Amino acid sequence: MNRLVLIGNGFDLAHGLKTRYEDFLNWYWWQKLRIAATKHDEENNDLLCKMTILTEDSWFSIVFYDLTLKGYLEDGNGKAIYNYLKNNKKVKLELSPFFERIHNSIDVKRWVDIETEYYELLKSYSQSDDAISQMGMLNKHLHYLQERLVEYLRTIEISDKQVRTDIRRKIYAPFNISDFSPEGQQALKKHVATGLEQDTKSWDVKLAQYGSICYTSGYVSSYRDKHQGNVLLNDELPVELLLPNHIMLLSFNYTKTANLYCKEGSIFSVNQIHGNLDNPSSIIFGYGDELDEGYNKLKNKNDNECLRNMKQIKYMMADNYDRLEGFLGSEPFQVYLMGHSCGNSDRTLLNMIFEHRNCVSIKPYYYIFDNGDDNYLELTMNISRDFIEDAKLMRSRMVKKPNCEPLTNRNNN
């Protein structure tokens, strides 16, 4: 049995990285004004935003007198900068419909999912009289935003010092029988039985790759002699027999945070399914829900602009998807969710994983808010949308909350 760890942006946030879209927008506005202050013309434009001075003031005076005195630049408060420019009679601020939609989402929801906003606007444009032109321009705006997002993320430093012991132990923990339904427990028993049939030297090799991450007992041989090959899942079972054969960290992030936890080898691997910052051309940024009713309408438009940024299309540009399929088909597997919201922007891929014949358990590691609430229920609702063929599978495979825990142990590295 294997383990697949789905890593989303919450994983980066747990390491103190400023990788929210709101963090990116803070950086964007700060950069835009910094560049504007060095220019002497009246306009400051890019594909997302056009800023024009309506008075004889210069950008230098606006940035370094008005904004600096108010402390906006020191705080890096992108929302405050945006609101200041929007309400300033000295400046005419014009956002693209896509960029304006993003800011409106933050105002209303206090958060934003850029990929979902893109998809909703794309569906709207596809019904317009000028669909080809509007969708083409929207795709250009998304690509420009992607370039700026990559530029921002590459400014974030990541080091081995940020590794969290509590997260590492969770990733490499032995299987826990309480995480599995009766069907899953049968798969776990087969996993243990296979281990009992193997020579103990093969387990020594495996444990050497795990290193000191797991605290192993080292008595496989005595256990086999004692029970004569009978598989009993109880407290006496040596931890060696409950370690996953292989662990894949499936990172939906562009950063290298997941790589801090993985020694590449025959047992462990990292799969950055959406590309990485070292190779910007590998980045997949768009939407991935071909199960949505609107997707078929887009596909039937027979216009490639409709599908240009669909993730399920872009997966064909690299072998990451094939590697994932090979992993899923090789053995039964348990899924860990670490910082992934399981939203609809990745629904196609998540459906393939969760409803796969080899998936036997889905264990979400939830987040605890400052007021003591957590997002386990929200994760469960999101995951339920990823099950299409058989809703009963979700209730069978999901690990119930009493057997789950937070991703991080607060005040503990």
Descriptive overview:
- With 413 residues, this protein is an alpha/beta fold.
- The chain folds into 2 domains: 1-18 and 156-275 and 318-413, no CATH class; 21-109, no CATH class.
- It is 45% helix and 10% strand.
- It has 18 helices and 8 strands.
- The protein has helices spanning 9-13, 21-37, 59-70, 72-75, 78-87, 97-109, 114-126, 131-153, 165-171, 182-197, 200-210, 220-227, 293-299, 311-314, 320-330, 347-354, 376-384, 391-397; strands at residues 2-7, 43-45, 49-53, 91-95, 247-251, 268-272, 333-338, 359-365.
- It is elongated.
- The model is unreliable at 216-224 (pLDDT under 50).
Parts with pLDDT < 50 across at least 5 consecutive residues? 216-224
Tell me the total number of β-strands. 8
**What is the helical fraction, as a range of percent?**
40-55%
- Distance between the first and last residues' Cα: 29 Å
Rg (C-alpha, Å): 25 Å
**Elements, N to C (H/E):** EHHEEHHHEHHHHHHHEEHHHEHEHH
Q: Which whole number gives the mean pLDDT?
A: 86
Q: Overall 3D geometry?
A: elongated
Q: How many domain regions?
A: 2
Across the major sheet, the strand order is 6-5-1-7-8
Percent of residues in beta strands? 5-15%
Based on secondary structure, the structural category is alpha/beta
